[in-house]
Design brief:
The chain is about 35% helix and about 5% strand. It is mainly alpha-helical and about 350 residues long. Helix 3 packs across helix 7, helix 11 crosses helix 12 and helix 11 crosses helix 13. The C terminus is likely disordered.
Length: about 350
């Protein structure tokens, strides 16, 4: 019996050691290296503003509680709640505030956060922060982004802590998740494509993180490749995120001009407008140049048709009290409707 207990304890210790090894945070840039010092120098704030808008930073990190008609999207105090099946995430303060924001960060800290999902203090970030997309960006672009962020006003105040269910609140386990889902391969130009298409590919795959919302996910929160850009259930529970591929259930009938115009105005080709979280996305893409919006449109229009996951059946709404038949009402007579009376498809 004693030998059995010793074996069990040894296996537990070995398993714990293996877990600790496999989940070790792995920053991209060693802060003690010469590279950390090198990336700190330079940085173009004007170019960084483009990265800021293309990356949609304000969509999540804008300070909450501002008057709806007076939102300053450059106040980056965070606080936005991002609901998910795993619990609620809260976007942090990324203003230059030295205490509550990132005012003390080096450029290398931002590189590690955006491309490795590792904080300056060495813990894993959850992928509600889309570093799985930013991992494909260039270090030069992240340096420019930091140059722009440093021009903004500090905003005091910390966002609430995440409230996640077990076992998702075990942050260390994100090391295993990253081994499955984090790909840090840079986006490379396709020489067979135009400069416009290649620019669009970079903006979509390395900055815009379109796939993060417009793709269905598996039980562990990783994107399912077969549903890449093909839409799926909204993780916050707000309906269905649309398919943006060239599938018949997607945007096959949209032109490049339609896509570009929507990114500028929020208006769709069927005289409607985007809603939900896409409105915040458009506030960012509207700040891009026409050339960049056209580039995004060219790349999106080239996406191969891909069928999305099956939608759940619509729930039948119960009849309202004033629509319920009265016991003393006359019996209903079946009459064939005229063609003009036929209901239009929804």
């Amino acid at each position: 019996m004693r030998r059995f207990i010793i074996i069990i304890l040894a296996l537990v210790i070995a398993g714990g050691g293996l877990f600790w090894f496999l989940t070790e945070p792995a920053p991209l840039v060693n802060m003690a290296s010469t590279l950390a010092g090198a990336v700190e120098n330079g940085g173009d704030a004007e170019r960084g503003k483009v990265i800021f808008n293309a990356g949609g930073c304000a969509a999540c990190h804008v300070s909450q509680g501002q008057p709806e008609d007076q939102v300053d999207r450059l106040k980056l105090g965070g606080g936005l709640e991002l609901k998910s099946p795993f619990g609620s995430f809260y976007a942090p303060n990324i203003s230059p505030d030295p205490t509550d924001g990132i005012g003390k960060w080096k450029v290398a800290d931002l590189v590690n956060a955006m491309q490795a999902g590792v904080s300056p203090t060495g813990y894993h970030y959850y992928p509600a922060f889309p570093y799985t997309t930013y991992a494909h960006a260039s270090v030069a672009d992240i340096r420019d982004l930091m140059a722009f962020l440093r021009t903004l006003a500090p905003v005091p105040g910390k966002a609430p802590a995440h409230t996640l269910r077990f076992p998702y609140n075990i942050r260390r386990a994100m090391g295993l998740w990253k081994r499955l889902y984090l790909d840090q391969t840079p986006v490379v130009d396709d020489p067979s494509r135009t400069a416009k298409w290649n620019r669009g590919q970079y903006l979509v795959l390395a900055l815009g993180h379109c796939a993060e919302c417009h793709s269905s996910r598996d039980a562990f929160g990783g994107i399912e490749p077969r549903y890449l850009f093909a839409g799926g259930p909204d993780l916050e529970g707000n309906g269905w995120v649309p398919n943006i591929t060239q599938h018949k259930d997607g945007i096959a009938d949209w032109s490049e001009k339609d896509i570009s115009y929507m990114l500028k105005t929020g208006a769709t080709p069927d005289n409607d407008s985007v809603g939900s979280s896409m409105t915040a996305v458009v506030r960012n893409t509207a700040e891009l140049s026409d050339a960049d919006r056209d580039a995004i449109a060219a790349y999106i229009k080239s996406l191969p048709p891909r069928e999305g996951p099956p939608k759940p059946p619509k729930k039948e709404e119960p009849a309202k009290a004033d629509e319920a038949p009265r016991p003393d009402s006359a019996p209903k007579v079946d009459v064939a409707p005229k063609p003009a009376d036929q209901a239009k498809p929804g």
